[in-house]
Amino acid sequence: MTAAMLVLEPIFEADLPPEQYAYRPGRNAQQAVVEVEAQLFRGQPEVVDADLANYFGSIPHAELLKSVARRIVDRRVLHLIKMWLECPVEETDDRERKTRTTEARDNRRGIPQGSPISPLLANLYMRRFVLGWKMLGLERSLGSLAS
Predict the structure, then answer these.
(1) What are phi and psi of 90, to 5 degrees?
(2) Measured in whole angstroms, how far is the alpha carbon of residue 111 from the centre of its chain?
(3) Contact 98, 90 (CB under 8 A)
(4) Of 23, 32, 55, 114, which residue has the fewest beta carbons closer than 10 angstroms?
């Protein structure tokens, strides 16, 4: 996964909107706060603050893979990413018992949290939201930034 992320990240990083700060090289939450503060100082009237509950677990595979396929045409790479999205998750409880779940495959949604490629995939899907926000004119009508 790390090798794939190292190859894919520069390809998708070029397309990510500047408003996206999370899980990006050279960017962090503190920089996002500084940008919001600067916008408020410049007279930006509103800040939209949203918390996406269970974001990693709710990303639909089909739409995410469409976003990946927009820039990656190699079927083997697309298949590999699909297999990562659908692989079972194994956890160990307090009593050292292991359980496996196929929830992501069964529900066709969710990306594995903690994997090296998950932040990139999460940002790629979030890009759709940010672009939709702008396309619908919400940025202008609310006088806000999407970050």
Answers:
(1) -115, 130
(2) 9
(3) yes
(4) 114
Report field, pTM of the whole predicted structure over 0.90: no
Q: SS3 for 18?
A: coil
Q: How far is CA 146 from CA 3, 10, 105, in A?
A: 31, 22, 31
CA–CA gap between residue 6 and residue 15 (Å, rounded): 16
pLDDT (tens digit per residue) in 44-102: 777 777 778 889 999 999 999 999 999 999 999 999 999 999 998 888 888 999 988 88
Q: Which amino acid is it at 7? A: V
Q: How far apart are the first and last CA of the chain?
A: 27
Torsion angle defined by CA atoms of residues 123, 9, 63 and 69, in that order, rounded to the nearest 10 degrees: 160
Buried b (16+ CB within 10 A) or exposed e, 30-44: eebeebbeebeeeee
